[in-house]
Amino acid sequence: MKHTINILAACFLLLIFAVSCVDDSIDFFEVEKPESIAELEYLNDYDFLKSYVDRAASPNFKLGAGVTVSEYLRLGHVYRVMNSNFDMLTAGNAMKYSSVVGDNGSMNFGSVIQFVEAARSAGIEIYGHTLVWHSQQNRNYLNRLIADREIEVDPDAKDEVVDGFKDYRVEGFTGWVGGPVQPVVEDGRLVVTSTEAQPNFWDVQYHVANGISIKEDTRHKVTIRIKGTSEASITVALGTWGAQQNTTIPITQEWEEVSVELNSTVTANDAFVMLQSGHYVGTYEIEWVRVTHEVAAAVTYYVNQLENSEMLVGGSMDNFIVRESGQADVPGAILEGEGPDGMNAIKINSVDNPANPWDTQFFIYTPNKAWEAGENYRISFWYKASAEANSESQCHGAPGSYMHWQMLPQNPQFTTEWQYYEATSTIPGQGDGMRSIAFNLNVNPTAITYYFANIVWESEESGNTIPLSPEEKADTLTYALRNWISGMMQATDGYVKEWDVVNEPLAGQGNVGEGFYDLKSAVRGTVSEEAAENSFYWQDYLGDDYVRVAVKLAREYGPDGLKLFVNDYNLESFWDDNHKLKSLIYWIDRWESDGVTVIDGIGTQMHVSYHMDPAQQAVRDAHIIQMFELLAETGKFIKITELDMGLIDEDGNTVRTADVTSEQHRAMSDHYKFIIQKYFEIIPANLQYGITHWSPTDSPQGSSWRGGEPIGLWTESTFRRKHTYGGFADGLAGKE
Questions:
Q1: Among 16, 105, 254, 484, fewest CB within 10 Å belongs to which?
Q2: Any residues with CB less than 8 A from the CB of 489 and at least 6 apart, and which?
Q3: Which of 292, 130, 112 is nearest to 219 (CA)?
Q4: Which DSSP letter does residue 277 get?
Q5: Banded model confidence at residue 99, pLDDT cuts 50, 70, 90
């Protein structure tokens, strides 16, 4: 064995030597070594870690470590330790999107190029981490790419916005009155009669319109259709009791639409228009009052509220819910190519002899949008049935939460031939807050099969910008992804041949397929609000098959012999019986089902903790074994990509580095040995692609990654070997 002298032990020996040589007359005496140093001396007999790998038995295996690139490039102690102990390095952050891509989309690969040159000179390989991830993305740049597009309009063009309208032709008088004159409504007109002049113009006053919306520093126009028995002027005021602006309007003996403009000093939704006519003698009548303001001209457009209108395989079907009598609600199953002109479709089977028309229902559902009463919409779809049949449409909240009996302006009448339905209408008043259209498909008393295809439900929007279509966003982001991947492959100059092509895709919640976990998605709500706000989920724009896009681009621009891994954490999870791993295997099979996409390997991160409670640790050990068994069955290359270990005491508390006992250190050492031995024992030799220790030294107290925890094989600053170094080496060596 090659002996490496521990730095502290060496200093201790020098101290003894110095003391013994000062004077021959000084009596010899012994200094007892501190127990903390003495018990670690056996580690001096260990060689460098990578020397324990049996290359003949595991020809593809590479021992790796995570490294901070800036520290490695100093070519100092970190550089030497990494090169001596490991075959391959993974950059902690330097090769991630946000470390390279600026807010304007420019890419700075300076650190990447230096890292590749330094590693290549040292004969050390690099594992690429990561091409596509939701975290550490430059969200400023990516969101700007898909921001709403400005619409070219005449800068002088204006649109008039109605802030309030009172129509006495159809409404009664409900305003406040101050003074001796009581306005009344007669024959669709508000009538105000004064037989004598009052001392002050405000001695006769009333609110001619209420519930007006006004905005601070906005010029509002008040228009009144009015005539009187005599010509005069009266005062009109707009505002609230605390802030009003006023002026005068003329009254003539002919019907006139009289307008004045008043600048609001407050913002309010309960403002009023008040008339003050104490000096007027005679009768005047009012048909209506309208308050408006002007804004820059806007364009009206429609936005589809359904994610997968074309029902593409791999896309979400959460917008299309099928309720067949006696069965649970399920997303509609896709019928590939069975719609009109080869479109995809879904079908719903109604029951025979129903008790109610709603015994079988189909819902078009917008879980992320609550529609407002009176909101304009446009809807279109293709439809047919196995026999002629009628249907009903209703307003619902969530599917099954009935709100109103009528939704569409005309309900579809089904025939055996495909028909196209399109309507533009408004949400009924009773449907305020609705989220789904329910089609009742048991109007006919016999069992019938109904089909729908290419369903589009759009809200009418207006403004000076227009959102990009889903297709435009996908195209734009594919372009950005192409630039990123091609740039990274060029910067690494063919030297990096193994990559996490996609990192951490699974949500660990939400069900797809046969109950497997969904992908992370801000749109589908499978991530927290904080994660949605701070991350960028490519799959929300490129679809669930975004992995196929990433793999295609990596193989297009990457070097020959490229190996691509999908990497995720908690694959050893005991709480769901390794269900996250089972879900990842499901998704990989799905992505590869196109016959083109090839994913070479699976990366399991394994950020584990050792539990001093034996019962707690036993269940975790069992699921680590099961994880390796499941991985072995895939036939993929298997890599532990980010292995490190914390410590949990018997009471379930996280133990900090300074508090770890010798017994606990040795327990962690044994657990490293267990993990590594099980990897070599269970994963077939030809599929063993490596183990990477994510944080070779203990984590500093203030670190964002497991700060202050004893996760390393070396101590934090002195790089002194720990018991875990021995356990790790024993695991690699296959030592019993």
A1: 254
A2: 554, 557, 558, 559
A3: 292
A4: -
A5: very high
Q: How many CB atoms are closer than 10 A to CB 399?
A: 19
- Provide the percentage of residues in the chain whose pLDDT is more than 90: 83
Q: How confident is the model at residue 19 (pLDDT cuts 50, 70, 90)?
A: very low
Stretch among 7-16, 232-241, 660-669, 710-719 having the lowest mean pLDDT:
7-16
Report in angstroms the alpha-carbon separations of 607 from 378, 495, 645.
50, 28, 6
Q: What is the DSSP string of 212-268?
A: EEE-TT-EEEEEEEEEESS-EEEEEEEEETTEEEEEEEEE-SS-EEEEEEEE-SS-E
Phi-psi region of 17 (alpha: psi -120 to 50; beta: other; left: phi over 0): alpha
Burial class (CB in 10 A: 0-12, 13-18, 19+), 206: buried
d(Cα 171, Cα 471) in Å, to the nearest integer? 48
Task: Identify which has the larger pLDDT, 499 or 464.
Answer: 499
Q: Provide the mean pLDDT of the chain.
A: 92
- 65 burial type by CB count under 10 A (0-12 exposed, 13-18 middle, 19+ buried): buried
Dig out the tokens for 380 from the structure.
Answer: 């279109």
Contact 63, 691 (CB under 8 A): yes
Query: In CATH, which of 3.40.190.10, 2.60.120.260, 2.40.180.10, 3.40.640.10 is domain 306-466?
Result: 2.60.120.260
Fold of 158-296: Jelly Rolls (2.60.120)
pLDDT of amino acid 218: 93
- Interhelix angle 77-85/110-122, rounded to 10 degrees, is 60
Question: How many separate helices (H) and strands (E) can be counted in the chain?
Answer: 15, 35
Fold match, 50-143+472-733 / 158-296: no
119 in Cβ contact with 156 (< 8 Å):
no
Per-domain residue ranges of the chain = 7-40, 50-143+472-733, 158-296, 306-466
Residue 38 pLDDT level (bands cut at 50, 70, 90): confident
Sign, CA torsion 327/332/335/339: positive
Out of 285, 498, 504, 642, which one is annotated catalytic?
A: 642
Which segments of 138-204 does DSSP mark as H helices, in order? 139-145
CA 59 to chain centre: 40
What is the predicted pLDDT for the residue at 29?
35
Check if the beta carbon of residue 479 is closer than 8 Å to that of residue 314: no
Q: Does residue 592 carry a catalytic annotation? A: no
Please give the model's pTM, rounded to 2 decimal places: 0.70
- Residue 185, token pair as written in the block: 């409504």
Burial (0-12, 13-18, 19+ Cβ within 10 Å), 251 = buried
